[in-house]
Amino acid sequence: VNDPIMGYLSDRTNTRWGKYRPYLLFAVFPLGIFNVLLYISPDFGETGKYVWALLIYIFWGMAYTATNLPYGSLTAVYTQNPSERTSLAASRMFFGMPGILFIAVVTPLVVSFFDDKKIGYPVATSIYTVIAICLILLVFFTVKERVKTISSERYSLREMFCLLYQNKALLIISSAVMSEGGASTIRVMMAKYYFEYNIGKPELFQVFMAVVIL
Q1: What's the whole-model pTM score?
Q2: Distance between CA atoms of 105 and 124, rounded to whole angstroms?
Q3: CB neighbour list of residue 73: distance below 8 Å, 6 or more residues apart
């Protein structure tokens, strides 16, 4: 739901910074706040914690989409060369993998410096969040939207969803991506608990993540 709405908004955005770059500047700070709040567990009771987690995760998802979708769309307005666009998109995904591996390996080490994990995880997340905000702002200030896109057709959100449901090829690809993403997420999340509670060796989770990413 978030992605089509964000695409709809960004396509209709026109500022002196371009279509997509403004979102990197304004959405990154709410994303950073919700990123840290995800790892804070207030003493609201069982029901209160559930509501807290639900709301924070929804708001985080919205802020993430508002940052990540325009960020990924920059390749389309940075160059018109299809080969360069492919290289940019591939590089973004390729170099993201070492980042995931770094987080998986380093986070338990950072958390281990604290007696209470409820303190360790927010501290580790805060460090990553500050680094991420600096890097996203670096993209905002250094990347320029060189390609001016002019669209003669305007679609409403309802028309866009109707077109989506009529495009069988896109539905198949979207279903495949959703299935793969869901399976990958479930595998990683289950592994975290599996190594900690079933095997009793949580340190093996880092090894597992290294193998998966490689």
Answers
A1: 0.75
A2: 12
A3: 7, 10, 19, 20
The owner of tokens 């390609």 is 147
- Report helix, strand or coil for 39: coil
Which 8-state DSSP code applies to residue 147?
Answer: S
Write the pLDDT tens digit of every residue in 144-176: 888 776 665 677 778 877 888 889 998 899 899
Render pLDDT for 42-58 as a digit per residue (tens, 0 to 9).
888 889 999 999 999 99
Q: Burial of 12 by CB count in 10 Å (0-12 exposed, 13-18 middle, 19+ buried)?
A: exposed
41-67 CB burial, b ≥16 within 10 A, e <16: eeeeeeeeeeebeeebeebbebbbbbb
Measuring CA to CA, which residue among 206, 207, 209 is closest to residue 185? 209
Other C-beta atoms closer than 10 Å to the C-beta of 127 total: 13
Beta-carbon contacts of 66 under 8 Å, excluding residues fewer than 6 positions away, are 6, 23, 27, 30, 31
Q: Are 54 and 45 in contact (CB under 8 A)?
A: no
- Give the E-state strand segments of 20-73 in sequence order: none
Structure tokens at 25: 């500047």
pLDDT digit string, tens, across residues 25-43: 899 999 999 999 999 988 8
Residue that has been written with the tokens 């539905």 in this structure: 171
